[in-house]
Amino acid sequence: MEQIGVALQETLQPNAATRKHGEDSLRTLQANPGYVIQILQLAVNEQQNVAPEIRMAAAVALKNFVKRNWGQAPEVEMSQEDEEQFRNMLLDAMFNTTKSNVQEILSNALYLIAQRDFPEKWPELVPYLSKFLTANDLNHLVASLASMDQIFRKFRYESKSTELWKELSKCLQSTQEPLTLLLANMMEVAQRKDSLGAEETAQWLKVLNLIAKVYHSLCSQDIPEYFEDHLNDWMPHFLQLVQISAPSQTSASGEPTTLDELKHEICEIFTLYSQRYEEEIAPYVPDIISAVWRLLETTGPDTRYDTMVCAALEFLSMVSQRQYYESHFTGDGVLKTLAENVCVQNLLLRQQDMELFEDEPLDYMKRDIEGTDVGTRRRGAIDLARGLCRRFEDKMLPCLSEIVQTLLASGEWIKIDIVYSLVTAIAVKTETAKAGVTATNPLIDINDFFIGQVAGHLNSDVNQTPILKADALKFAVTFRKQLAPEHLMTAIKASDALLSSSTPILHKYAAYAIERILIADNSKIFSAHNLPVSSILQNLVAAFDKDPKAQNSPYLIKAILRIIVILDEETIRHADSIATKLAQLIESATKNAADSVHTHFLFETICVLVTKTRTIGASLDAQLLPLIEVIFREDLEDLIPYALQITGVLVSSCISRNASIDQFSAFLPFLLSERLWARSANVPAALSVLEVLLSVNARGVVADNSALILNHLSRLLGSKTLDQYGFQLASAILPSIEHFEGQAMTFVLNTMFRRIQSSKTPKFIKLFIVFLCRFTILRSAQDLVRSCENIQTGMFGMLIERILCIEMPGLKQTTTAPEKRIIAIGMGNLLAEATQQLV
């Protein structure tokens, strides 16, 4: 245990090398018998001789051990007896520790184990947890409920199955009655909640929140019979809880309090029941609608309430769609009140929203255009407005149209911002993330709104009303399938102008609009000849210099790529001037981590540039090769696949323009290194580069590297997930096998034969037969016969009899057209040249 303590202490040190040594030591020590028991004892040892930070580090190390060893490929093999002992000790430790932070980590570890072992190997888990539901110890109660919440959460999202329902039934048998009694006990406290201190109130609300979470999970598949019979023991309490207040529960950072989370969970339960169990909940629906409506009207604009408000809006949106509840919305003035007091009020930008636009523009954009606004008021209000329009179109359209006209007449940009959301909510019938809107409300003229409002916002001063310009660009993207080509042209040209705005976030919106509109241009309306491609490219590149955080998002580089794609031989010259800047961006990525999607498209853009024009390929060689060398030398793991990809493109470019590839010989040690090929993600790109080099300079590549290449081949062929790359490499070396040292062909075939004997798969057999046929094409059928007979006399006959004759009929359904062609030619070669060997 002392060694473990020392290693844990090292993992907490500020020096990176020391931390790494500590982590490596723990990985070594984990193989020792009793390691996991010892580290558990350290985590819960509350004696003074063990520092609190060591206990916390031990708990984290324990959870990481469980994560690595209770999965598909455990690093340490444990016997069933040891696993059972550890599970029991973990349960006891979780309930006996008094440190809530350690208890929470142990609960997470327990959940990771339960994912694999419950219920088959650990049937007593939930009954054991359930017995603490009747305990008076709050720590035990929280630990039990928190574990149940994690374990039962899968009932919310997993598909129905016999096994899942058996598991759910066992969980219900142990928990449904004590959970119902626990809620009743907790609600007795509600009568004296005002006399509780802040800490006691927080604990009480935490228990109630966990009860609601567990109940939600248990009811998600179907309403359990017990809960259906005892609905009156739950719904009145939920109605009471959704209306209570707790002034002592405050949030300084804008995060929801436990009470906010409880109300959010209850609103989700109301939504579940109203959607799935209409008849059962019908007697409570009028009171629920009133309570949720009152909640929305009395809740302030603070961000801490956002997820709760969104859940309440989702409930109203859902019940408004159900004919069963229609009467609750058709009363005089109800829909108008909903539109004005609920929808419009929750669409209004708040001060914190405007601060987000200015200070954290990327977060604002992700919410606005990438769909991460789930759980925000605006998304909830838009969904409610859209739902009401679909269900009560004849009443809602006149109402919302009147609201829109009033907001437009005000002339205030903050109110016109609401108009964009309302018009979109009314107009959209169906949409997808890829294609945008696919069907619109025929009563709304999208093009007319563009002419009347959107075009004016796009073409006004680039530095004025930036939020409205962002709204306008988003509108053009959303309705890119419905807008006339001339309006889309207006949007693209306006985007070009907005790239020079003093507001950096508009550069991203403009780039986003350009990229989305062009990628949806299936009719090829836009081209390098009717768009200002030179200006757009220059402004996109200049935008990188105007914003130091530009590489933290992919919008600019994706737009650059889309413009380059539409360039033709006549207009590709416009891209020459940005090539150097792209190389500089790669250099920046080698020094400071950039957004991963930006990095991907940056390298993709370089590759497209090099492929489309020889002049750029020649000029970029000198700039990119030193950067590629840096990536290899410093082992920048995330960038290596891209460096390999671009190396292959540069080599191919050199070959196509008859230039020397000698400068790439310095990369061979990196390209063939064990470390590089050990990472599966690098293999496809490394192999593609090696194939190109072998095709033009096999002797130079193989010299001093034949053993290394064959080792890579052997490892790939032995892997069930990478064997296709092994055959690809084998095919690449076939034409130059004579340059390899020793009996290379014998080694290759023997490696394949051993794999067939030990662990063949249908995939491997197919690839093997295709390889044999390719062998006869690239070399000859006679050469294949000789190579097989060199291994063992009669081997070729056995190959035909035991593999080809047996497996060939099954290939009809598994091979592609090119593979069928190779097999046909290869078999023809065998029949023509090698049949005498079978006599």
UniProtKB/TrEMBL annotation:
Keywords: Cytoplasm, Nucleus, Protein transport, Transport. It is found in: Cytoplasm; Nucleus. One of its GO terms (molecular function) is nuclear export signal receptor activity. GO terms for cellular component: cytosol; nuclear envelope. One of its GO terms (biological process) is protein export from nucleus. InterPro entries: ARM-like, ARM-type_fold, Importin-beta_N, XPO2_C, XPO2_central. Residues 22-96 form the Importin N-terminal domain. Pfam families: CAS_CSE1, Cse1, IBN_N. Coiled coil: none annotated. Its main location: cytoplasm. It comes from the Eukaryota. Belongs to the XPO2/CSE1 family. This is Exportin-2. It comes from Caenorhabditis remanei. The gene is Cre-xpo-2.
